[in-house]
TrEMBL record:
Cited function: Cell wall formation. Catalyzes the transfer of a GlcNAc subunit on undecaprenyl-pyrophosphoryl-MurNAc-pentapeptide (lipid intermediate I) to form undecaprenyl-pyrophosphoryl-MurNAc-(pentapeptide)GlcNAc (lipid intermediate II).
Family, similarity comment: Belongs to the glycosyltransferase 28 family. MurG subfamily.
Full protein name: UDP-N-acetylglucosamine--N-acetylmuramyl-(pentapeptide) pyrophosphoryl-undecaprenol N-acetylglucosamine transferase
PANTHER family to which the protein is assigned, alphabetical: GLYCOSYLTRANSFERASE, UDP-N-ACETYLGLUCOSAMINE--N-ACETYLMURAMYL-(PENTAPEPTIDE) PYROPHOSPHORYL-UNDECAPRENOL N-ACETYLGLUCOSAMINE TRANSFERASE 1
Membrane topology: Peripheral membrane protein
Gene name of the encoded protein: murG
Localisation per UniProt entry: Cell membrane
Amino acid sequence: MNTSSVLPRSFRLLVTGGGTGGHTYPALTAIRTLQGRLAAAGSTLDVLWIGTANGLEARVAPAEGIPFRTVATGKIRRSANPLKMLSAANVKDMVRVPLGVAQARSIVSGFQPDVVLATGGYVAVPAGLAARLCRVPLVLHEQTVRLGLANRKLASSATRIAVSSESSLALLPAEVRERAVVTGNPVRPEVLGGHPDKAVEALALYGFERRLPTVYVTGGAQGAQQINGIVRDVLPWLLSHANVIHQCGPANVDELRSAAAGLDPTLAGRYHLCGFVGPELPDVLALADVVVSRSGAGTLAELTALGKPAVFVPLATSAGNEQAHNARHLADAGAALALLGEVTGQALQNAVGPLLTAPARRTAMAEQARAHGRPDAANRLVDVVLSAASR
Ligand SMILES: CC(=O)N[C@H]1[C@@H](OP(=O)(O)OP(=O)(O)OC[C@H]2O[C@@H](n3ccc(=O)[nH]c3=O)[C@H](O)[C@@H]2O)O[C@H](CO)[C@@H](O)[C@@H]1O
């Protein structure tokens, strides 16, 4: 699909979605890509983001100069027990959903967008429903293989449903599948342009041994207690074979720092602990020879676009076991290793060890990973948005 020849003189896009990075960054990347394409054609973009006050998007959108509004959202916790359905939290949330739809409707009718793009998270539901009420084309983007809860609720109202992999198509009901298109999951372009030396400077990694490979351990924005525990269990072994950047979650830094306090000074110099990796993320990824990570859709899209060998420790409770599915899919293709079920430090050591000692294994895995990357996802999603507006 190529819609670049019919770019409008101006375009009004309302974006909604967020909560976590997995929903926020694809929205941000789509906005920037559309902005770039319109600017190149001498056209302009007016954009507005509807998100939640306490989601990542509330920081990201204003920092990018994107006008940002919030609406009330609620999470309906389903339960077989009717008494639990009537819990105070559920009743409060049931009231918040129609309130959020009314607020979103007023925003949509005031802004008059050409398209509403929804990228998932609870906030996408009221804004998506408001798009339908205002008869504005609605494009959904789904990052994971199975549609998330918000997108399942909105699918019947959507003009197009952009999915991140072919394997999603077979899982969609026929009436949804005919409006679905595979775009991939957009990755922020800067994530692909990092430099290892900049990571060394930005994080002052002067105790790192550059002849050794570097392992980047990440548990997602909040960190992952499970990953922190197994890394801590094998830390002296790991540091005798590699440098380690360990993103452990802001709440876990103190605990891990005291666990690392007894390390031999040479090994301690090879260990960098941090709560969250901010703007230096591209450089950290560029420096990493092996990544140990949760298998959320955003991280997967980044690691495959870069072609990084990875050992995944999926979040066991993610909806529909989606992270385990993601990890297994890449592991079956030789593009990663997946540690499922009860994961011990020893299992991590068995998986990471051969990757550290045999660079050829890393190269082979990196090639397979790259074959699953979709660096053109943002442009494809923008094509879908533009074509939905021109229908
Ligand atoms: C717990 C949960 O609900 N997880 C879901 C959530 O993932 P969640 O948003 O937690 O994780 P993702 O892997 O999708 O995205 C994380 C994003 O944050 C970035 N990052 C992470 C750590 C850090 O220190 N700095 C940083 O910038 C990563 O590079 C990535 O871009 O949404 C995904 C997309 O719908 C789903 O696949 C996940 O199952």
